[in-house]
Amino acid sequence: MFAQIKRLGADTAIYGISTIVGRFLSFLLVPFYTNVLVPGEYGIVSYVYSLIAFANVLYAYGLESAYFKYSATLEKGTSAETFSTSFLVLCATSIFFSAGVIFSKNAISTLIGLPSAMGTVILCTAGMLAFDAVALVPFASLRMERKAKTFALLKLANIVINVVTNIVLLVHFRMGVEGVFISGVVSSAATVLMLLPVIFRHLVFTVRPGLLAALLRFGVPTIPSGLAAMAIQVIDRPILRAFTDDATVGIYQANYRLGIFMMLIVSMFDYAWRPFFFSTAKEWNAKEIFSRVLTYLVLGMSVVFLFFSFFIEDIVRISYHGHYLIRPLYWNGLPIVPIVLLGYLFLGISTNVTAGLYIQKKTQFLIIGTAVGAFINIGANYILIPLYGIYGAAWATLLAYAGMAVAGYIPSQHVFPVRYEWPRIGMVFAITGLCFAGYLVIKQQSVATCGSVLMIAVKILLLLLFGWFLIAVKFFKKEEIVRMKSILTSRTIRRIF
């Protein structure tokens, strides 16, 4: 068992490298934006990008997934025909859709509540949507050919170009919100240019009607699930804007993005988990392994939750030449960070417990979890935002991810029952909750009396208490203690080095 789990950990690290680098580079835009844009401007950026997320689903209409299926099986044509049909049709529809957006920019600006002076934002959005859709199939072909390095390098190049262009346009030319969207369209266009060798290597300028019909039959039905998934991730921004204003959305977005530390853990795990559970499913102790993986995953995510919940305020207050991770204008939103971290923790649980649906080929039940999460998120946002503002939006996301985990767990247990270690997981949650509650009490009582150094010492002590409580309640099994001792022996350490 430990050998398989060790392999999963190694795969998580390997798959996560490009993810970490890419997401970290994107995350660098958060402190940059918060230091050069006021909350109202950043709120507009966040709001429009949330709408772009929904539009991306419509622009792609499932053809990327359909390409994966028919490129792998070659049921309806050759590899070149599958690529060309998917690619050329996406090019045509993307041009058509974006042309409609450009010609209707004034009406769209009014519909979504953008100032008329920001017509450039609509034009750039139309360009981004088109270029990103055109790039879908070439990127998918790189994944099919297992050219992971090329795929990762191009994705990273896109992010680097976006970051650099943002810095130039916002700092040197002081273009504000428009500069953000010009940077987006420039990086998207540059990515398509870098993909030209891939495109020309596969393109045969052939569109097979029968193949296209099959692609559409497979892809179009995935649109509702794609929209539901986007609703879980970004619907809170437009709803929050409807009840508040752009500045509130900007403050919410800046602090929500600080949840990246948990999101990276979940993303890295997801990359490794899917191939791992497929390859492990036929082993005699597969269910025992899956159960233990969830226990360790919850334990690891709980440590991340406590660490960043305790220290995020200290981290954002670190000043470098008068600049902060996020500017003080945004600090009143910091209390939502633990809520966001906890939401991603439940997303990690959802990723784990739905493995049975993939193993037993019952993926049609996945839409249930996504739909439940979307409905919870939309409903909770409408109920909680008028009452609690950004805190209501954060709690709505947490409830949505928790609902997804439950809605995915129930059908997965029906088709592939796994005896998860719920008593041990319950211990982790209870101890985590106890330490976090202790932190909140101490923080409230010591605001005026404790210096920052003393408070940091208290936080470190609480983290140590977390580990001590786990030992005190005998969380660790005998074989786990033996394994940990063997890892910590000097002999093992010498072997590592």
Can you describe this structure?
The two termini are 25 Å apart. Helix 1 packs parallel to helix 8. The chain folds into 3 domains: 1-36 and 235-420, no CATH class; 41-229, no CATH class; 423-497, no CATH class. It has helices spanning 2-27, 29-36, 39-60, 63-73, 79-103, 105-112, 119-144, 148-172, 176-194, 196-202, 209-219, 223-234, 236-243, 246-256, 260-280, 286-316, 337-353, 355-359, 366-388, 390-415, 422-445, 452-472, 478-488, 490-496. The chain is mainly alpha-helical. The mean pLDDT is 89. Helix content is 81%, strand content 0%. It contains 24 helices and no strands. It is globular, with a radius of gyration of 24 Å.
